[in-house]
Amino acid sequence: MVNPILSGFKSLPPALKEASHTLGKSSFTTLVKVLLPNIRPSLLTGIVLSFAHTIGEFGVVLMIGGNIPGQTRVASLAIYDEMQSMNYPMANLYSIILLVLSFSILLSVYLINHRLNKANPLP
After folding, report:
1. pLDDT score of 120
2. What does the alpha-carbon distance between residue 33 and residue 119 come to, in Å, rounded to a whole number?
3. What pLDDT is recorded for position 9?
4. What letter does residue 27 receive in the DSSP assignment?
5. pLDDT in tens, 46-102
6. Which of 14, 42, 78, 88 is the most buried (most CB within 10 A)?
C-alpha cells in the first residue's frame, strides 16, 4: 500500500502544500483537507492491492493463526483442507466463490476509480 500512496504524494504539485500553509492551515489540516483528497485514486489503488494480496494469503495465516477447526478458517485454508481430504467438488466451489468475490470487488473498485478520474481530471 505504501508505493501507490507514495507515488500519489509525489505526483502532487508542491504549491498545494505551500498554499495551504500560507493560508494558515496546520500540517495535519493540510494533510487531511488538501493532500489526501487529491490522492484519492492512489489511496484506492493501495487498498485494492492490499486486498488482492491478503485475500489469498496462505502461509502467514497457517503459521501465525493456525488452522483451528471451527475457529480460525479463511478461504485459502478451507480450499487447502478440502484438497487434502480429496473433496474436490467442495474445493472447487470454494475456489469459484473466492474468484467471483475477488473479481466483483476489483471490478467495482475499478469502476469507482474510473468515475473519480473522470470527475477530477488531472491538469
Report:
1. 66
2. 18
3. 93
4. H
5. 888 888 777 777 777 777 766 677 776 778 888 888 899 999 999 999 999 988 988
6. 42
Residues 6+ apart with CB under 8 A from 25: 33, 34
**Burial status of residue 123 (CB atoms within 10 A of its CB: 0-12, 13-18, 19 or more):** exposed
State the Cα–Cα distance between residues 30 and 75, nearest whole angstrom: 40
Measure the CA dihedral 17/20/26/27, to 10°.
-10
Q: Read off the amino acid at residue 1.
A: M
| DSSP per position, 45-72 | HHHHHHHHHHHT--HHIIIII---TTTS
User: What pLDDT was estimated at residue 67?
Assistant: 67
